[in-house]
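Proteins fold reproducibly. Take a sample protein:
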Amino acid sequence: MCGAPDQAVALPPGTDLSKETVLAGRVVIGGEPVGGAFVRLLDGTGEFTAEVVSSASGDFRFFAAPGTWTVRALSRAGNGQSELTADGPGLHQVEVEVAAA
């Protein structure tokens, strides 16, 4: 069983968005949430950095460093990816649209 935190809940208490960079978003297909997707975070060179499973509402989040990131979702409904640039601390949001495989 994965020990990842519940991706659908609010940010953990004590999260300081003036100092921390949080990448968050939803995995969707046709605007509808995709739960259970494997959401991978790739750095600016394409290297795998982290992975979480999207919640039933399609939500996911990563605590990361500022920079350019690729968020890739792999699911039974299909796959997709989005690019995201986090230019500093704060909450940076992205939606990943998956297409039928």
